[in-house]
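Here is an idea for our session: we take a single protein and study its fold together. Which protein we use is up to you, so please pick one and set it down. Once you have written the record down, we can walk along the chain together:
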Amino acid sequence: MGELRIFFTTDLHGSDKCFRKFVSASHFYKASVVIIGGDITGKMVVPIVEKGGVYISRYQGVERVMKNEKEVAEFESIVRDGGGYPYRTNEEELRRISFDEAYKDQLFKKLILQRVEEWIALAEERLRGKGVECFILPGNDDVFDVDQAFAKASVVENPEGKVIDLPMGYQLLSSGFSNLTPWRCPRDLTEGELLVKLDGIASEVGDFKRCIFNLHCPPYGTVLDEAPKLDKDLKPVLGLGGTPIMVHVGSTSVRSLIEKNTPLLSLHGHIHESRGAVRLGKTLSINPGSEYSEGVLRGAIINLKDDDVKGYLLTSG
């Protein structure tokens, strides 16, 4: 029996550039299974305001003045590649966006869903007939509206809450839900709620020795879940020399599930700074990290054979 090669990445947060690289990853890395492990949507709308024959916007603290369609299109591409949602508007609508929270929320969800639908369409076009299985998992940051974008997909699958059979007798267990974060994201749960959910999914696994856990949140107390400690204003707490104090923020429920069932492999994201790999008993756990805002696709190539991880490589490109 041959080897199964997987390419895993996570936390693209709306970056068009990273997603285009992801779609090409199966060919580039010769992987037959490709996975995004959560947090697929971006965090901000960037208004581009038409005013007096020019377009004005502010992005990354810099005001941009664009004089023609070419300059606007180039700016929109920069924003999309960085994970933002450029939105052409006028001064009147901008005022409404600023003061009407319901309208702002409706617009944001509309732009999020549109981007996800574009991504799925691109993946369907590029991967159809190539013998590649493609899984895109929403993460705790992602509003539930995005799930509807997968309804008509035939090549791309949202694996949330499922145990899916892969080639060569492997199985993929997936969930993008997380333990509680300071931001109270859409798919945040208490540890108790999360453990019940994960245990329910795991009850469908046939053989944990040939199972891959695709869980957005990393296990607590490892090199995969270290993030800056935050104060009450959600700003990093600094230690000696002005460096952030790091603390463990992963999930005790995820760690419990791994230690209880000892799957072959567990794949995680969520904590962008904690790129690395660790062994929890017999389970190899990986977080490739994220550098989406720079258009860098961080990932991991994993080769599986029989009941063993034959090798893995953290990638960046």
Notes: Residues 4-42+109-316 form a domain with the Purple Acid Phosphatase; chain A, domain 2 fold (CATH 3.60.21.10). Residues 101-127 form the longest helix (27 residues). The chain has two domains: 4-42+109-316, 45-104.
